[in-house]
Sequence to fold (84 residues):
Amino acid sequence: MSENIGVIYILTNPSFPEYVKIGYADDINKRLAQLNRSECVPFAFRIYATFEVSSRLSDLKIHSIIDKLNPNLRAVENFDGKKK
Fold:
């Protein structure tokens, strides 16, 4: 039997109502504290959903999964119509 190591998370933020942040964290509360420390974001990130996993996942692996589901979900290079 495997133990859960961490979570894939989906976070929302009222500062960016049209976007969600998806990633992996060993400790979701530590990750929230890291993200919410920034003075550049007026509102705090909030947990929308988590999915417990039994192995560590890199952001690249998560992005690969999302791209297989729907590549348009990860359109980070176009933010407010500006190509990055």
Q: What stands out?
A: The radius of gyration is 14 Å. Residues 7 and 52 are 4 Å apart (CA to CA). Helices lie at 28-36, 59-69.
